Amino acid sequence: MKNKTLTRNGVLLASSALVAAFGAPSLALAQAVAQTAAPAAAVALSTELPADPESPDQVSQTPATQLGDIVVLGRNIPQENRQSAEVAAFLTSEDLQRTGDSTAAAALTRVTGLSIVDGRFVYVRGLGERYSSALLNGSPLPSPEPLQRVVPLDLFPSSILAGVTVQKSYSPNYPGEFGGGVIDLRTVDAPADPFLTFKVGVGGNTETTARDNLVYYGSDTDWTGFDDETRKVPGQIAQAFRLGKQINLANFSASEVQAMGRSLVNAPLRLMQRQQTPVDGSLELAGGFRTPTEIGDLGVIAVAGYDNSWRTRQAIQEEGQFQGDDLVPVSTFDVESNQNDVRLNFLGGLSLTTDDHEVKWTNLYVRTTTKRARTSAGPDFDAGGSVIRNDYTEWFVRQLFTSQLAGEHYFGADGEWKLDWRAAYATTSRDAPYESRFQYGVDAQDRFIHNVQGNQISFSELDDEVWSGGVDLAYKLPMAAGREATISVGASTLDNTRSAERHDLQFEAVNGLTDSQRHSRIDYLFSDFNINPWTLQLREIAGSNGANAYDADMKVNAVYAMVDAEFVPTVRTTFGVRFEDGQQSVTPRDLFGGTTSYDATEIEEQYWLPSFTATWNFTEDQQLRFGASKTIGRPQFRELAPQAYTDPESDRVFIGNPYLTDTEILNLDARWEWYFGRQQFVTAGVFYKKLDKPVEAVIVDVGNQRQQTFLNAPEATVMGVEVEVKKYFEFADQPSFISNKRWLVQANYTWSDSDVSVGEGDTVITLGGGGRPEQAAFFIQDGSRLQGQSEHVANLQLGWEDDTARSQATFILNYVSERITARGAGVGTAREPDYLQEPGAFLDFVYRKDFTVKGRDLGFALELRNLLGTDFEEYQEKGNRIRINQYDLGQSASVSLTARF
After folding, report:
1. How many CB atoms lie within 10 A of CB 510?
2. Which are the contacts of 348, defined by CB distance < 8 A and separation ≥ 6?
3. Which end of the chain has less Cβ packing within 10 Å, N or C?
4. Which of the listed ranges 64-73, 156-165, 345-354, 697-706 does the model predict with the highest average pLDDT?
5. Does 57 have pLDDT greater than 50?
6. pLDDT mean over 681-704
7. Which residues, 6+ apart, have CB-to-CB distance to 858 below 8 Å?
8. Where located (predicted)?
9. Which residues contact 488 (CB under 8 A, 6 or more apart)?
């Protein structure tokens, strides 16, 4: 909208005034200014310019003696870096196009100090996803993930994004829940010129495509991401769920239980087969326009996409135990899984713009469906070393819808008042119907036979919604020598509610199974013929005592005040404070209306969160930044819920800890930036963070089962160094293949180190301890790293841009060193080593070329991923390496064609 700062055009007009006043001798000065001027980060004037420097009449009437020396600083500093007073990184639409990443999560791995976990969650400076917040156009988002309150960024296709801001130093206009940084996704806006594009793509993976892999039928419409209600909860069972009546013979008659059992879909959802996996495919349609109306410019933007992909994993999963001083594997499972991911997305936006006002209405709908068949087999220590096999058929649906109405308004004669406001509603859900497990043992001939006690069919739902709003008012106060101060105040509110429940069903063998039944095919065993009061009988297991349901709520009301001013020439200072009043609660709920042994967990805290940042633009294109702030981190809903949950990604059981508390964080940042050319720069920075009571994950033994739970470590520090460089090269005297191209070298590297401090008198509170303080040293080793923190994160991009050939090619290398995923089981000296993951190095290649066919502009893209063949590896190591989870990722390739109308 309105911009009252003196830009390049203003400088050129001022130089024209010199020519008009002094004649030809001043022409050289005007030309010199014109050659070097660019959007200015700082402009110092010895006297004031006319009220409207864009008016030629006013300029010619102004005495020449009023215009003194013009000092233009920061001519190469990009617009985003000039506007931001904080340490920040920016992904532009150009960056997103160059790397070709399909989702926001993948794109953010190219940013200095960022790494991706599970393909969904972004870690900033080694701090886990709980220490970062994700916003969409400035509004918070809910999460469909059972274990996280942070929204997974793989939900957002890069095609809907105009750019991403990653702010690493805190400012009080952002939520106080800030550790590694805040990630603000900005959606595409209505274009200045109308456009319409259609894109189609195909791809594959060496571990998956055209191979015979596990599948199950499901329904005829699974390929759309929607089933044909095959997985709908049967009527009688759904009614029992609604009434809160546990399915057993105490609440229902034998005939009713029999009818419920027979109403469950059998063969299509239970029988696994092998089928050749097809290629991946995607479609995308985008268009938009802007047109003048009587009340302003009306803008329309729409983006719709469909993506269908397959991925197979051949994994090894082991559990280890101490034998003497060494760990040895006591259980080893061969795991095979094949999943089909279908993503549908639609973005629609309307905007109305005038010279001083803009109102936008943005709507986003994303649906991702995962259909997975998997099997796990091997000797199980808990079964006395006998071979156990578990087969799983699963269907997970994640949906997100958000609608935001936002406005930007300028008031006053020179637009010195600015009002921003936003109101948003967002809802996500996760639906997992017919999540099935069937277990097998072996007979004397090593043939698999049914272990009917291990069968389970689960129905789970999670609904999470956020109502939010905010208003920001800023006033630009003129200061001496053409400088100005911006005084901002604002308020925001957030109400996040979540409801989650899970129902587990099991068929009980009333009189045991016959030999023929134990050897029968899965759909034959669970056919209607065998579901009766004397063979297989349905019952609902667990779920009592609040084990499978909870409600959660978080309310945060905040106000802030901030000053952004250049009190001293070339030194920009930003300081302010935010006050947050937060209330968070998690209430376990008995599915059957009874009381639970767990009380509601409530955290009510108020915080004053100050921040200070100074930016010194000490030479033409260099600046120093320094920032200090205090922020917080809150436990996530699932981490507070004292219930067991099995994560299908890792097959690990998680259980919450209702005794967790907030984390308080001190942040210090310093960075040097040198913008030596357009889109070219070198930056180097250091950071330090001190965390009081950070939340850490630990492994505990509960009977024969290992579970991952959470606790507040006493204290931790993180410190590191970040370096980034971007440089273009041109070679005019070389052959045309080289001279026609603009060659790119871009690299960044982050070294970080973390230290968890555990003293002799430090204690922690765990769920197993029942709220009683226990020695922290039993669970956490003094001096160990924070969970999720990698010592080294590096990115390298090498490529070219050829305007003559209308092509672009880039090699992209990403490296992340090992990180802790969970603390080892046990206490004191008997504690096992931590679980480690080695992400390793990934090399990608992206090539794009535009061409014209019969007057139609077309775009071709080739993307090659994981050329080094890096695999996934999570392990423990003490004498031997225990492969917690290891599998090949394979190499991927895709091609796409875009038509522009």
Report:
1. 12
2. 301, 302, 362, 363
3. C
4. 345-354
5. no
6. 86
7. 850, 851, 852, 897, 898, 899, 900
8. Cell outer membrane
9. 173, 472, 473, 474, 475, 560, 561, 562, 563, 564, 576
Quickly count: other Cβ atoms within 10 Å of residue 741's Cβ.
23
Q: Strand 705-712 and strand 652-655: pairing?
A: parallel
Pairing of strands 484-509, 456-478: antiparallel
Report the candidate in 285, 96, 55, 127 with the shortest Cα–Cα distance to residue 633: 127
What is the distance between the alpha carbons of residues 592 and 270, in angstroms, rounded to a whole number? 28
Q: Report yes or no: 707 and 650 within 8 Å, Cβ to Cβ.
A: no
Report angle CA 174, 117, 870 to the nearest 5 degrees: 145
Question: Which residues does 558 contact at the CB level (< 8 Å), separation at least 6?
Answer: 175, 176, 491, 492, 493, 578, 579, 580, 581
CB contact at 8 A, 569 and 528: no
Three-state secondary structure string covering 640-655: HCCCEEEECCCCEEEE
Is pLDDT at 852 greater than 80 in this prediction? yes
Is there a contact between 280 and 209 (Cβ–Cβ < 8 Å)?
Answer: yes
- So what's the pLDDT on residue 865? 92
Residue 795 tokens, joined: 């990115």
Identify each DSSP E strand in 522-662 by its residue range.
Answer: 536-541, 549-568, 571-588, 601-619, 622-633, 644-647, 652-655
d(CA 45, CA 52): 15
Ranking 34-43, 404-413, 762-771 by mean pLDDT, the lowest is 34-43
From the list 60, 12, 66, the residue with the least C-alpha distance to 34 is 12
**Using CB atoms within 10 A of its CB, is residue 153 exposed (0-12), middle (13-18) or buried (19+)?**
buried
Confidence grade of residue 75 (pLDDT, cut at 50, 70, 90): low
d(CA 506, CA 502): 13
Distance from the first to the final alpha carbon of the chain: 29
pLDDT tens-digit series, residues 550-568? 899 999 999 999 999 999 8
DSSP labels, 212-260: EEEEE---TTGGGT---STTSPPHHHHHHHHHT--SSTTTS-HHHHHHH
Q: Which helix (H) or strand (E) holds 31?
A: helix 27-36
Q: Considering the entire predicted model, what is its pTM? A: 0.84
| Distance from C-alpha of 41 to C-alpha of 290, rounded to nearest angstrom | 30
Q: What are phi and psi of 276, to 5 degrees?
A: -70, 130
Amino acid at 298: L
Nearest CA among 26, 102, 61 for reference residue 282: 102
| Amino acid residing at 145 | E
Name the residue with tokens 């009980």: 508
Q: Residue 658 has which token pair? A: 């209702």
DSSP string, 577-588: EEEEEEEEEEEE
Residue 400 burial class via C-beta count within 10 angstroms: exposed 0-12, middle 13-18, buried 19 and up: buried
Per-position b or e across 170-207, b if 16+ CB within 10 A of its CB: bbbbbbbbbbbbbbbbbbbbbeeeeeebebebebbbbb
d(CA 399, CA 396): 10
Residue 508, amino acid? E
Minimal CA–CA distance to 111: which of 679, 797, 787? 797
Which residues is 185 bridged to in the sheet? 136, 164
pLDDT band (50, 70, 90) for residue 520: very high
Sign of the alpha-carbon dihedral angle for 815, 719, 762, 131? negative
Q: pLDDT for 730-763, tens place per residue? A: 998 888 888 889 999 999 999 999 999 999 889 9
Q: How far is CA 714 from CA 131, 412, 414, 662, 764, in A?
A: 17, 52, 53, 12, 7
Rounded to whole angstroms, the Cα distance separating 236 from 708 reads 35
By C-alpha distance, which of 334, 309, 327 is closest to 388?
A: 334
Q: Which of 277, 182, 156, 226 is nearest to 629 (CA)?
A: 182
Q: Is the pLDDT of residue 30 over 70?
A: no
Residue whose structure tokens are 């040895």: 328
- For the stretch 703-740, pLDDT in tens is 666 778 889 999 999 999 999 999 999 998 888 888 88
